[in-house]
Amino acid sequence: METRVAIIGIIVENSESVSELNAILHEYGSYIIGRMGIPYSEKNVSVISVAVDAPQDVISALSGKIGKLNGVSAKTAYSKVVTKYDNR
Question: What CATH number does the domain containing 66 carry?
């Protein structure tokens, strides 16, 4: 199996979903390379980017779970970097 490097862009419009979002990110923590969050208080949203290195199905599952949260949107951009899976 192979892994891909991707970035998941997340917009949080409902702060009540933050604890669920953090739980999901913790669940997939072994695949996360890094994350950056920027609160935008003027618009009452948070903008988060999460860089991952994971198999395609894991990235899709993570993005899908995040996108199902109330008031949370997620989009994924994939790199062309593909490497052999290392059994994390």
Answer: 3.30.70.1150
